[in-house]
Design brief:
It is built from 26 helices and 40 strands. About 5% of the residues have low confidence. The protein is about 30% helix and about 25% strand. By secondary structure, it is an alpha+beta fold. A hairpin with a 4-residue loop joins strand 35 and strand 36. It folds into 6 domains: about 170 residues, 3-Layer(aba) Sandwich (Rossmann fold); about 120 residues, OB fold (Dihydrolipoamide Acetyltransferase, E2P) (Beta Barrel), CATH 2.40.50.690; about 70 residues, OB fold (Dihydrolipoamide Acetyltransferase, E2P); about 300 residues, no CATH class; about 55 residues; about 100 residues, OB fold (Dihydrolipoamide Acetyltransferase, E2P) (Beta Barrel), CATH 2.40.50.140.
C-alpha cells in the first residue's frame, strides 16, 4: 500500500514548490516470533522495498522466553518506549534482559536525541545472544498511524507505541502455536503513557517496577537510572541552586550578548572554582572565572554552559587555596570554605567573573572511581568518589556496598536536582580491586576515553589472508628498491617499525637519500570497517607496560612493519642531495623494499663510531649522520626551537611485570639523525600535497604562543640575571642558546623545560579551513605527518593524498571534502591529546609502584615553579615532578612570604628562587587508596620545624644530571 503526502513549500528565491512524500505500507513484515503461523502464511520472506526494511535482529526472539518476574509470571516479551531506551540503556545491555522488541519509532527518536545511546542500542540489537528484535512498525499497514490535528509529535509517537503493543498481543493470540499464552509487555516511565496503555487493556510497567520484580537478578536494581521528578525534588527539601534557564531564554540571552556560551572546566585543586572557556569570533578566546557552589550551579566538567557576567566590582582573582571535596559538610562549613576563597582574592589580578545560568549541552560520561560507604548502617544510599578530581561526588543506591568497597567501579550521572548537593547516578559495573595493575590500567584508559576493546570480527575480516606474499602484479605497480641497503633505527623492542632510511653515492658525485615509510594505506582501504576503526582510534597509545594499537597486530607488527630481511610495501620519498644537504630533486613513489638491518639507536651509533666497520649499511649511516647535522644546524639557524621535557624509561620485571628500575632516557646522535630526516620528509610531503590539493590537504601547525605565556619564563630567567627574548622563535632560540650561568650546567635544560610549558599545542587542520599554516617550533612555513602511518591515522590520510597526487591511487569523495577533513582533524587532535594524558597517567602509576617497593629515598632536585605555600620540584634522575607543601592540615604553618614579581618564596626567612637546587625525600602516600600519590618533603636547605631529617639508610650515591628528552613539538 502506498500513502502519499503533499505540501507547499516556499523556496529561498521566493518561489513556491509542491513537495510529495510517499510512504510505503506493507502487511508482510515479520513479528519476530519464529513459530508464528500468521507470518509464515504470508511467506515472510518478501524482499523489502528499498529503504523500508523488515523486522530484524540477528538472534530473533526465542520461541519460549523465560522470566522470573513476580509482576508478570507468564512468558512474555518486553517493548520499551523511547525514554526507557534513552535513560535505562545500562539495564537493556545487561545479559539478564533478553527477548525485547525495539520499534522503528523508538529507534528513530533515539537516533535523533542521542547518538551515543543509539550506537549502544544498535550494538545490543546486533548481539545474537540478547534476542532483541527490531520491528518496523512505521511501515506495517496495521501499526502505522497519522499524527492527529492538535497532537504533539511526542504524543503521536507514544500512541504509535501503544498501537504496536496492542497489535503484537492480538497477533500472537491468533497463532495456534501460542500455547504458552505469550504476550508483549510495555515498559514506560511516562505516567500518562502508562495510564493510557492500561485503559487500552495493555500490560504496562515502569522500568523500576519491572526490574525490582526480577527476583533472580537483584543486582539489576543498582543499574536503574535515577531520573528525578522536578516537582518532587522541590517538595522534598531545601533549594540549594537556582533553576536553570530554558534553552529558549538562553538563546535570547546569547543573541543579545547578555549571556556567553562556553565550555565548563572544573578546577582540579579547588572544587569551588571553575573556568568557562569562551570561544569568540576570529579566534579571540577568553575565560570567565566561576567561584562558589551556587555560581557553579550544577555544571559538570566539559559541559557546555551559558554564563552571565557579574558586575565588575564583584570580579575576583583565581584562588591560590587548595580545597578538596571531602564529602557532605554542614552548610555553615560550606559557607566558611567559600569565605576562605574571598579572603585570598586580590583586585590587582582580578578576572572577569560570572555565574552559570543554564546548561546548553551535558557532556556526562561513565566515570571511574570508588564508593564511599555511608556511615548509616544498612543504608543503601552512598556517595561515589570519581577518580577525576574535577568531577563532583555522585549519590548512588546499591545493596552491594560491602562487596564494592575496595573496588574500582563505573557510575553514570542521571540527574542533578536543585535540592541536592551532589548529582544522582547509578552503578554500572565493577572493574576490579583498587591498586591492581590491570584494574588501574583499565581505569586510566576509560578515564581518557582511549578505545581499547579487542578488534571486532567485522574489522578483522578486512585484513589480508595469510600467508601473504608480494606477487608479480604488485611489482609492476611499484618501484623495486630491494637492492638498496636500507635499514631502520628504532628504540629497543620496537615491533611496529614504520620508517627506514638509506643513503648512497651517485655516479655524478651527489647523494641519494631515501626515507621509506610503511605503506599502510595499501592494506586499509577507505570506508571499510578497518578504516573506520582506525580513524576512530586515531593513534596508537604507548603505556609503560603495553601498547594499544591503532591497527590490528597482523599489520602493526607484521605485514606493515619494515623488519629486516623481509620484503615489504613502502611509500618512498627519495631526494638527490649535494654533500651540503641541498635538495636538487625529489621523487615520491610506491615501492617494494627489503631492509638489510633493524637497528636500535645504540647499535646504529656503535656502527657509526666503529671505524673498523665499513659495510654498505654502516657507510650509509655515516653519510646520513653527517647530512643530519647540516640539516639540524640549518633549522636552528632559521629559528627552530630545541626544547626539553623529562621522560623516563621503566625496567620491568619479566615475571611480575612490576617496575624494578627507573631512569631518564638517554639520547644519542642517531636519535637526532632519524628525527632530521623524518622532519624533512614531512615538510617535503606537506609542500607536495598542498600544491596538488590546496583546499583539502591535511596539515599540522604549531601556533605561536601569546607573549603573556612567556611571563613566568622571562621572570625566572631575570632572577638568574639572564635575558630571554620572546619577540620571535629565532630570538627565543638564540636567547636559550646563550642562557648559561657558570657553575650551573643544568640551568639551561631547566629553562628549556620551562619554555616547553609556555608552548601551545600543535594541531592537525585542513588547509581549506585555515589560513595560518606556520609551525612555530620547527620554524617551518608548512608541515604535516607522513612518517608514522602504523601509529597515526593522520599519516594514512596524507599517504592517500600523496598517492592521488602521483597517480598511484584513486581519490574518493570524503578525501576531497574539506569539512569532513576538518571533522576528522578534530577527532585526531582529541585522540592525540587523550593519548598523551593517558601515557602520563601510566608513568605516574608505574612511578608509584616503583616507590612502593623503594621506600623512602632522598634525591637532588630543582625548583621548577613557586606557589604561595609550596614549591614544585623536578627530580632529573627520575624525570619526576612533585610538590613540597609548607602548609599541612593539623600542623602549624611556617611564616611564608610569596613575591609574584621575582618570583620567590620566603619560608621562615629562607628564600627559594626558581631553579634553585634542593634535596627532598620521596615517599609514596598510600593513605588514600583512590588517590595514591608521591609525596616530597624538604631535606636541604635545613629549615628548623620545616625540613625533615636526611634518610641515613640510603647509600650516598652521586647524583648525575642526565640529558632530558627533547620535547616533541612536531
Amino acid at each position: 500500500m502506498l500513502k502519499s503526502k503533499s505540501f507547499i513549500k516556499k523556496t529561498r528565491s521566493g518561489g513556491v514548490l509542491k513537495v510529495v512524500r510517499e510512504h510505503y505500507l506493507r502487511d508482510d513484515i515479520l513479528c519476530g516470533w519464529a513459530p508464528c503461523e500468521e507470518c509464515g502464511s504470508r511467506g515472510g520472506c518478501a524482499t523489502p522495498t528499498p529503504g523500508q526494511g523488515q523486522g530484524q535482529g540477528p538472534g530473533g526472539l526465542t520461541d519460549s522466553p523465560h522470566t522470573d518476574s513476580q509482576l508478570c509470571p507468564q512468558p512474555h516479551y518486553l517493548l520499551p518506549d523511547t525514554n526507557v531506551v534513552l535513560h535505562q540503556i545500562d539495564i537493556l545491555e545487561d545479559p539478564a534482559i533478553q527477548n525485547v522488541v525495539i520499534l522503528q519509532t523508538v529507534l528513530q527518536e533515539v537516533r535523533h536525541r542521542s547518538a551515543p545511546v543509539y550506537k549502544r542500542i544498535k550494538d545490543v540489537i546486533n548481539n545474537p545472544e540478547k534476542h532483541f528484535y527490531t520491528f518496523t512498525n512505521e511501515h506495517h499497514k496495521d501499526t502505522y498511524i497519522e499524527q492527529e490535528q492538535g497532537e504533539s509529535a511526542n504524543d503521536r509517537n507514544d500512541r504509535a507505541i501503544r498501537i504496536a503493543v496492542k497489535w503484537y498481543n492480538e497477533h500472537l493470540k491468533k497463532s495456534h502455536n501460542n500455547t504458552l499464552q505469550l504476550q508483549v509487555v510495555l515498559i514506560t516511565n511516562d505516567r500518562k503513557n502508562k495510564e493510557r496503555a492500561v485503559e487500552d487493556g495493555l500490560v504496562a510497567f515502569t522500568c523500576d517496577e519491572y526490574v525490582k520484580s526480577l527476583v533472580g537478578n537483584p543486582e539489576l536494581v543498582d543499574r536503574l537510572a535515577c531520573v528525578s521528578d522536578t516537582a518532587n525534588d522541590i517538595e522534598s527539601g531545601k533549594l540549594i541552586f537556582r533553576e536553570h534557564l530554558p534553552l529558549s531564554k538562553i538563546q535570547q540571552g546569547l543573541k543579545s550578548h547578555h549571556f556567553l556560551q562556553g565550555t565548563f572546566r572544573a578546577n582540579r585543586d579547588n572544587y569551588l572554582e571553575a573556568t568557562v572557556w569562551i570561544y569568540g569570533e576570529e579566534g579571540e578566546n577568553k575565560d570567565i572565572l566561576i567561584q562558589g557552589l551556587k555560581n557553579l550551579n550544577r555544571a559538570v566538567h566539559e559541559d557546555v554552559v551559558a554564563v552571565e557576567l557579574l558586575p565588575k566590582e564583584m570580579w575576583v582573582s583565581p584562588s591560590a587555596v587548595v580545597l578538596q571535596d571531602e564529602g557532605q559538610v554542614e552548610a555553615d562549613e560550606e559557607d566558611e570554605r567559600e569565605g576562605l576563597l574571598k579572603t585570598v582574592t586580590t583586585k590587582t589580578f582580578s578576572k572577569p567573573t560570572g555565574r552559570v545560568v543554564g546548561i546548553i549541552k551535558r557532556n556526562w560520561r561513565p566515570y571511574c572511581g570508588m564508593i564511599s560507604k555511608s556511615q548509616i548502617k544498612e543504608s543503601t544510599r552512598h556517595l561515589f568518589t570519581p577518580a577525576d578530581r574535577r568531577i563532583p561526588r555522585i549519590r548512588i543506591e546499591t545493596r552491594q556496598s560491602s562487596a564494592l568497597e575496595n573496588q574500582r567501579i563505573i557510575v553514570v550521572i542521571d540527574a542533578w536536582p536543585r535540592t541536592s548537593r551532589y548529582p544522582n547516578g547509578h552503578f554500572v559495573r565493577s572493574l576490579g580491586n583498587a591498586g591492581d595493575k590491570e584494574t588501574e590500567t583499565e581505569v586510566l584508559l576509560l578515564e581518557h576515553d582511549v578505545p581499547h576493546q579487542p578488534f571486532s570480527q567485522a574489522v578483522l575480516s578486512f585484513l589480508p589472508k595469510m600467508p601473504w606474499v608480494i606477487t608479480e602484479e604488485d611489482l609492476k605497480k611499484r618501484m623495486d628498491l630491494r637492492y638498496l641497503y636500507i635499514c631502520s633505527v628504532d628504540p629497543p623492542g620496537c615491533t611496529d617499525i614504520d620508517d627506514a632510511l638509506h643513503c648512497r653515492e651517485l655516479e655524478n658525485g651527489n647523494l641519494e637519500v631515501g626515507v621509506h615509510i610503511a605503506d599502510v594505506s595499501h592494506f586499509i582501504r577507505p570506508g571499510n570497517a578497518l578504516d573506520q576503526e582506525s580513524a576512530n582510534r586515531g593513534t596508537t597509545v604507548y603505556l609503560c607496560d603495553k601498547r594499544i594499537d591503532m591497527v590490528p597486530e597482523l599489520l602493526s607488527s607484521n605485514l606493515c612493519s619494515l623488519r629486516s630481511n623481509v620484503e615489504r610495501f613502502a611509500f618512498s620519498c627519495i631526494w638527490e642531495m649535494t654533500h651540503n644537504a641541498e635538495i636538487l630533486h625529489t621523487i615520491y613513489t610506491k615501492s617494494v623494499i627489503n631492509s638489510k638491518a633493524s637497528l636500535t639507536y645504540a647499535e646504529a651509533q656503535m656502527r657509526i663510531d666503529d671505524e673498523s666497520m665499513n659495510d654498505e649499511v654502516t657507510l650509509g649511516l655515516r653519510r646520513l649522520n653527517k647530512l643530519a647535522k647540516i640539516l639540524k644546524k640549518r633549522r636552528i639557524d632559521n629559528g627552530a626551537l630545541t626544547l626539553s621535557s623529562p621522560e623516563v624509561r621503566f625496567h620491568i620485571d619479566s615475571e611480575t611485570h612490576d617496575p624494578i628500575d627507573l631512569q631518564t632516557k638517554e639520547l644519542k646522535e642517531t636519535n637526532s639523525m632519524v628525527e632530521e630526516f623524518m622532519l624533512l620528509a614531512n615538510i617535503s610531503v606537506a609542500q607536495k600535497i598542498y600544491e596538488e590539493f590546496s583546499e583539502c590537504a591535511l596539515l599540522r601547525k604549531h601556533p605561536a604562543p601569546p607573549l603573556s605565556n612567556y611571563d613566568i619564563l622571562v621572570k625566572a630567567a631575570r632572577s638568574k640575571n639572564l635575558d630571554i627574548q620572546t619577540d620571535s622563535a629565532k630570538a627565543l632560540a638564540d636567547s636559550l642558546d646563550n642562557a648559561e650561568v657558570p657553575g650551573s650546567p643544568y640551568l639551561n635544560t631547566l629553562l628549556r623545560i620551562l619554555t616547553t610549558r609556555c608552548m601551545m599545542q600543535a594541531v592537525y587542520f585542513c588547509s581549506g579551513m585555515d589560513t595560518d599554516f606556520h609551525h612555530f617550533g620547527l620554524a617551518s612555513p608548512i608541515y604535516t605527518h607522513f612518517t608514522s602511518p602504523i601509529r597515526r591515522y593522520s599519516d594514512v590520510i596524507v599517504h592517500r593524498l600523496l598517492a592521488v597526487a602521483i597517480n598511484a591511487d584513486s581519490t574518493y569523495p570524503d578525501l576531497m571534502d574539506k569539512h569532513k577533513q576538518q571533522a576528522l582533524c578534530n577527532n585526531l587532535n582529541y585522540r592525540h591529546k587523550m593519548a598523551q594524558y593517558s601515557q602520563r597517567a601510566s608513568v605516574a602509576f608505574h612511578t608509584q609502584l616503583f616507590f612502593k617497593t623503594k621506600g623512602i629515598v632522598d634525591e637532588v632536585g630543582y625548583i621548577l615553579f613557586l606557589k604561595k605555600n609550596a614549591i614544585v620540584v623536578l627530580i632529573p634522575k627520575f624525570g619526576l615532578e612533585g610538590t613540597v607543601l609548607f602548609e599541612e592540615k593539623g600542623k602549624q604553618s611556617p611564616k611564608l612570604h610569596y613575591n609574584q614579581e621575582v618570583p620567590s618564596l620566603s619560608v621562615e626567612g629562607t628564600i627559594f628562587n626558581m631553579f634553585d637546587k634542593v634535596t627532598v625525600t620521596i615517599t609514596l602516600d598510600a593513605s588514600n587508596v583512590q588517590h595514591q600519590k608521591i609525596r616530597m618533603a624538604l631535606v636541604d636547605p635545613v629549615i628548623p620545624g620545616v625540613s625533615v631529617p636526611r634518610n641515613t639508610s640510603q647509600k650516598n650515591t652521586s647524583i648525575e644530571e642526565p640529558e632530558m628528552k627533547k620535547a616533541k613539538l612536531n
